[in-house]
Amino acid sequence: MRENPGRPRWITRTSVGSRSGHWSLIAKHRDKLPETEAVLRALVETREGFALRRLAWAASTYQAEGTIPARWQLIGRGALGNVAKWPKVADAINATLLALSNPPIIAAFDGTLSAAI
């Protein structure tokens, strides 16, 4: 689910159960399915984790386009909303904007330097 192309989708108990077609069974008998419960705990994302994954996705789309977004554009494309104010997400936004605005310099085969965008 995390590796699907396109806009990220939040991985929750409900989404995993619905996609598997066994949500009712999982919801009603969690106590009888300890291994399933352990796998679900490992799979599901927190709201913050999902926001960081959306941020990475948004950054990769801008990088593929070869454009440098403004802060509000990055937040908008990543659909971060108020989560963008959370400390860990805000720090990640700042680091992402810095990385997008300062692409690494690489040496071409002919010896010239160019920015990798």
Overall radius of gyration = 19 Å
Number-wise, the strands total 2
Q: How many individual domains?
A: 1
The major beta sheet can be summarized as:
2 strands, antiparallel
Strand order across the largest sheet:
1-2
What's the order of the H and E elements? HHHHHHEE
Give the low-pLDDT segments. none
Shape descriptor reads elongated
Describe the protein's architecture and organization.
The protein is mostly helical and 117 residues long. The protein has 6 helices and 2 strands, in the order ααααααββ. A two-stranded antiparallel ribbon has the order 1-2. Helix 4 (47-65) runs parallel beside helix 6 (87-101).
Structure in a nutshell:
By secondary structure, the chain is mainly alpha-helical. Helix content is 56%, strand content 5%.
